[in-house]
Prior knowledge:
By secondary structure, the chain is of the alpha+beta class. It has one domain: CATH 3.30.1330.40. It is 24% helix and 31% strand. Helix 1 (52-69) packs parallel to helix 2. The longest helix is centred in the middle third of the chain and has 18 residues, at 52-69. The radius of gyration is 15 Å and the shape is globular. Pfam families: Ribonuc_L-PSP (PF01042). It comes from Tateyamaria omphalii.
Amino acid sequence: xxxxxxxxxxxxxxxxxxxxxxxxxxxxxxxxxxxxxxxxxxxxxxxxxxxxxxxxxxxxxxxxxxxxxxxxxxxxxxxxxxxxxxxxxxxxxxxxxxxxxxxxxxxxxxxxxxxxxxxxxxxxxxxxxxxxxxxxxxx
Length: 139
């Protein structure tokens, strides 16, 4: 899907392009899809990986499946929110490289949020997306 998203890192805000995201994303004509927070539960309901690395890998897989269901690509992600239990530099160092790779250079607007808990005690990361569906493909 080709997106009508415009990415901005204005001079009046910190330049986050080297970190793999943009300060502002502007969506053109079309519709927005709000993807619920994806956690490390496999589609078949299997075991949640114990490690943060394993959970991030499963979350990225789930995010990709959500985009596939929308006939969208990472270029269509307008915004992403990343919720991490016990957020610190080490956790961000584990979570961000696979997520940045998932973006495939798209640089959506991203917010990282440290939380005390998620929906289940074994979950360590949850990621939600807002995806722009161009008008010609919006259903």
